[in-house]
Design a protein that fits this description.
Length: about 325
C-alpha cells in the first residue's frame, strides 16, 4: 500500500515511515521546510511540501494514497498558545479528515493518552474509563487541542470517514530528531535535578507504537475505534533514576513536594506574564506532571497485536540515540 504520513520528521512519524519501508510499503510525507537530509536518510519516501492548510497539496497526496497516518501536531505543555494549538491540532486534523472523506481513504489518527481519562496505580485507565473533574479540565493547550482533534475525527466518522484512533503513552526510542520526548533524557543527564516530578507516565517504545499504527491501518475496523498504546507505568522519579543510572550522572533525590510545586507554578506563570514567553515550568505543565498517567493497553494488545517490549531495551536504545 501507499501511505501518506503527516508529522514524518517527528519521533513517531519518522519511525512509522521506517517501518512502512521495511515492510515493503510506499510512503509520502508532508514537510513544511526542506528537511535535513539525515531525517529521511535510507528512505525512499516521496516528500511533498506544504503544511496542513495547503489544500491542493493535501488533496493530491490523499487522493494518491491508500491510507493516511496523521501524526503532525503542536506539542506545547502550557496554558499559553491555545489558539495556535487549536489551529494546528484541531483545524489541521479537520483538513485531513475532510480530504479522507472526499477520496474515501482510511485515516489513522494519532491522539495521546493525555487527552483521555487518568487511572490510578491499582486501576490503570482503559478506553472506557470515565473522565472525572480532575482529568476533564486540565488547562493545557496541548491536551485541550488534542481532545478537540479526536472529536473532529469522530465527527468525520459520523460523516462516513473510515478511521482508527491511537493514543500513545510517553514514547521513547530512536529517530527522535528534534528531540521530542527524548528531551527528558537530555535534560536529566545534562544537569543534576534533585527533585523529580510527582506523577508518573506510561513509558512505551516508539517502535512498538509505530508497529501498532501500521497494524491499525491494515487490520482495525476503521469505525472510530480508539486504542491506548501505553507501556510501563512508572513514576517520573523511578524513570529519572533509571535514566541517570544509565548515563552515569547523578539521579534525583525525591519527588517534589506539593508546596514546592505550587510555588514553582506561581513563579513560572508570573515569569511567563512578564516575559511573554512560557517556560517549561508553568502551572499547566506542573499539573500534568503531577498526575499518574497510567494506562492499560489490553485492547490494543488483543486487537492490534500491540507488543510492549522491556523498558531496559527502550531506555538503552533511546539513550544511545540521544547521547
Ligand atoms: C507544529 C507542527 C508540527 N508538525 C510536525 C513536525 C513533526 O514532524 C511532527 C511532531 O513531531 P514531534 O517529534 O514533535 O512529536 P511526536 O513525539 O512524534 O508526537 C507524536 O505523539 C504525540 C503523542 C502526538 O500528539 C503527536 O501527534 C504525534 O506525532 O509534527 C507539522 O507538520 N505541522 C505543525 O504545524
Amino acid at each position: 500500500m501507499r501511505v501518506f504520513v503527516t508529522g514524518g520528521t517527528g519521533l513517531l512519524g519518522n519511525n512509522v515511515l521506517r517501518q512502512l519501508e521495511a515492510a515493503g510499503h510506499e510512503s509520502v510525507a508532508l514537510v513544511r521546510q526542506p528537511p535535513e537530509s539525515k531525517v529521511f536518510a535510507g528512505l525512499s519516501t516521496r516528500l511533498v511540501h506544504g503544511d496542513l492548510f495547503s489544500e491542493e497539496t493535501i488533496d493530491r497526496a490523499v487522493a494518491d494514497c491508500d491510507a493516511v497516518v496523521h501524526s503532525a501536531a503542536l506539542i506545547h505543555l502550557g496554558w499559553t498558545r491555545l489558539a495556535e494549538s487549536m489551529r494546528i491540532n484541531r483545524d489541521g486534523t479537520k483538513a485531513i479528515v475532510d480530504a479522507c472523506i472526499k477520496y474515501d481513504r482510511k485515516l489513522l489518527h494519532v491522539g495521546t493518552v493525555d487527552s483521555i481519562a487518568i487511572g490510578s496505580k491499582r486501576a490503570p485507565a482503559n478506553e472506557s474509563t470515565p473522565m472525572t473533574s480532575s482529568t476533564q479540565n486540565i488547562p493545557c493547550s496541548y491536551v485541550v487541542s488534542k481532545k478537540a482533534s479526536v472529536e473532529t475525527v469522530l465527527d468525520g466518522v459520523r460523516r462516513g470517514l473510515r478511521a482508527t484512533i491511537v493514543h500513545p503513552g510517553f514514547m521513547l526510542g530512536p529517530w527522535d530528531w528534534k528531540p521530542s520526548s527524548g528531551r527528558m533524557i537530555v535534560e536529566v543527564s545534562k544537569a543534576w535535578r534533585p527533585f523529580a516530578p510527582r506523577g508518573g507516565a506510561s513509558v512505551c517504545d516508539v517502535r512498538d507504537v509505530a508497529a501498532a499504527v501500521i497494524a491499525g491501518i491494515e487490520h482495525a475496523s476503521q469505525d472510530g475505534r480508539q486504542y491506548i498504546l501505553g507501556g510501563h507505568n512508572i513514576t517520573y522519579f523511578q524513570l529519572w533514576k533509571e535514566i541517570t543510572r544509565r548515563t552515569g550522572t547523578r539521579g534525583p533525590v525525591t519527588p517534589t513536594g506539593p508546596l514546592a510545586l505550587w510555588v514553582a507554578g506561581i513563579v513560572g506563570d508570573f515569569k511567563t506574564r512578564i516575559t511573554n514567553r512560557e517556560s517549561d515550568i508553568n502551572s499547566a505543565a506542573i499539573r500534568m506532571s503531577s498526575l499518574f498517567h497510567w494506562y492499560d493497553s489490553s485492547r490494543a494488545e488483543n486487537e492490534l497485536g500491540y507488543q510492549i517490549r522491556g523498558l531496559e531495551e527502550t531506555l538503552d536504545d533511546a539513550i544511545q540515540w540521544i547521547c
